[in-house]
Amino acid sequence: MNGPITTRSVIVERQLPHPAEKVWRALTQGPLIEEWLMKNDFRPVVGHKFTFRSEPMPQWDGVIDGEVTEVQSHTRLSYTWSASGLKSVVTWTLTPVEGGTHLRMEQSGFRPDQEANYRGATYGWQRFISNLERVLGERA
User: Is residue 42 packed enough to be buried (19+ CB in 10 Å), middle (13-18) or exposed (0-12)?
Assistant: First the structure.
């Protein structure tokens, strides 16, 4: 009998000098998401199925399928993330702090045999969140 499979998460945290409402808009409004992440048909509605679309690359067709699983306005957003055989969950948590918002992104569900996906996500999220910070700064 095998035990449970241990999975890993990619976690990125940032202190942002913006109110949670502004960060929330960037995480949930399609045109803003496109500026920092990918083209999409996202809506912050539990049960909404959506796709993120990017340029295809070797080993990836450029499509991520997702479904919104949790929406707590200005506080928490969670959705599934399915691409190239990887099924994971992305959860955004916004916490108001003095001078702005603490942003925490966790992509969970990486199995031990998905090391390349884990490394790719670790790199990718750093870049995406830097883009998010740029978009937030430009829309002051």
Answer: buried
> Considering only CA atoms, which of 43, 22, 24, 37 is closest in space to residue 138?
22
Assess if residue 4 is contained within a domain. Answer: no
Instruction: Give the DSSP letter of residue 117.
Output: H
Domain count, the chain: 1
pLDDT higher than threshold 80 for residue 35: yes
Kindly state whether residue 1 falls inside one of the protein's structural domains.
no
What is the pTM for the complete model shown? 0.93
CATH of the domain at 98: 3.30.530.20
What percent of the chain lies above the pLDDT cut of 70?
97
Give the model's pLDDT for residue 32. 97
Residues 36 and 131 sit within 8 Å (Cβ to Cβ)? yes
